[in-house]
Amino acid sequence: MTDLRHHGDAELAPGLVDLAVNVRAGTPPAWLRAVLHEAVDASAGYPDPRAAHAAVAAAHGRDPAEVLLTAGAAEAFTLLARAVTARHAVVVHPSFTEPEAALRAAGRPVTRLLLDAADGYRLDPAAVPHDADLVVIGNPTNPTSVLHPAGALAALARPGRVLLVDEAFADTVPGEPESLAGRTDLPGLLVVRSLTKTWGLAGLRVGYALGPAELIAALAEQQPHWPVSTPALAALAACTTPGARAEADAAATELVASRAALLDALPPGAVVLGEPRSSFVLVRVPDGERVRRALRDHGWAVRRGDTFPGLSPDHLRIAVRDPGTSRAFAAALAEILAAAPVPASTAPTREETG
């Protein structure tokens, strides 16, 4: 049984360089730290979500009734699983496993739609069963780093179906060209966003959902009082200003160059799968379990792939870091791949070696 609750942070240990967690290095920036410190000082009272709620709605051109603030994107998946009585939920894999885990925990039947590496892990909308009343997909998708065309995802929306698009990594793509966050014309569309990746706020647990007012209200009914803390609300308000969004887009542009440096440095034995567009790449290596253990011995933590449905121990997810770090990692990986044990059936005989 696939361990749907395994995540990249489980790969970390003191002394290891973190290429396992997809949070941007060097964050949060100093100005955001100052906002958080001030919010902690203001945390004696109960959280007041009004300013953050209005800021998120304005950032995406949405009616406030179409916005739900959540304790991280993961809370939105749990709320949806509890609020929507899905008879046939389809989760597109390989992808982030929390939505399926939440659905199964709520007793919802789940069908997995496995995308194929031979097709670049791209979605064919026709492959989604017509009777699915809940469809879940990430864009860009974790762990494949594939960015699906907005039109292909929009084609999945229809009356009587909830279409959940996990856009936790949408702001890692310059200009967010395939985001559906501003679409209000698609029935049942629920877009889930997070501040975790770009702003380095995984420990704060801060995110939000955008969707039809009636669906947002149904999710809100499943929340306890004060679900989002005062510091998280301050981060939401601060990170959705035009200036902060411009900073995030500049970071996404810088990421393009850093990702290219990683791809250029990877040794031939690491096969890049799909067309990476986010802050991580998916590779396949021979004898992946041995390679991952050897990388740890060399001081590197990467994300194992076999806990994602559709992937195997030979799949590794590698976070994009600065070019210097990527080149050092690639050199270690090349050394490990070159040191692969020779299978007994192909080892040279004494006669062949003289």
Can you describe this structure?
- This protein has 354 residues and is an alpha/beta fold.
- The chain folds into 2 domains: 8-25 and 245-338, Aspartate Aminotransferase, domain 1 (Alpha-Beta Complex); 30-241, Type I PLP-dependent aspartate aminotransferase-like (Major domain) (Aspartate Aminotransferase, domain 2).
- Helices cover 34% and strands 15% of the residues.
- It contains 12 helices and 12 strands.
- The protein has helices spanning 30-41, 50-59, 73-83, 98-105, 150-154, 196-199, 213-220, 230-239, 242-265, 288-297, 323-338, 350-353, and strands spanning 17-19, 67-70, 89-93, 110-114, 134-138, 162-166, 189-194, 207-210, 271-272, 280-284, 300-304, 315-319.
- The strands form 2 sheets. It has a 7-stranded mixed sheet, with helices on both faces. The protein has a 5-stranded mixed sheet with strand order 1-11-12-10-9, with helices on one face.
- The longest helix is centred in the last third of the chain and has 24 residues, at 242-265.
- The relative contact order is 0.17.
- Mean pLDDT is 94; it is low at 344-354.
Our count of helices gives 12
The sequence of SSEs as H and E is EHHEHEHEEHEEHEHHHEEHEEHH
Helix content percent band: 25-40%
Radius of gyration: 21 Å
In the sheet with the most strands, the strands line up as: 2-8-7-6-5-3-4
Q: How is the main sheet built?
A: 7 strands, mixed
Protein structure class:
alpha/beta
Count of beta strands: 12
List the helices and strands and how they pair.
Elements: E1 17-19, H1 30-41, H2 50-59, E2 67-70, H3 73-83, E3 89-93, H4 98-105, E4 110-114, E5 134-138, H5 150-154, E6 162-166, E7 189-194, H6 196-199, E8 207-210, H7 213-220, H8 230-239, H9 242-265, E9 271-272, E10 280-284, H10 288-297, E11 300-304, E12 315-319, H11 323-338, H12 350-353
Helix pairs in contact: 1-8, 2-8, 3-4, 9-11
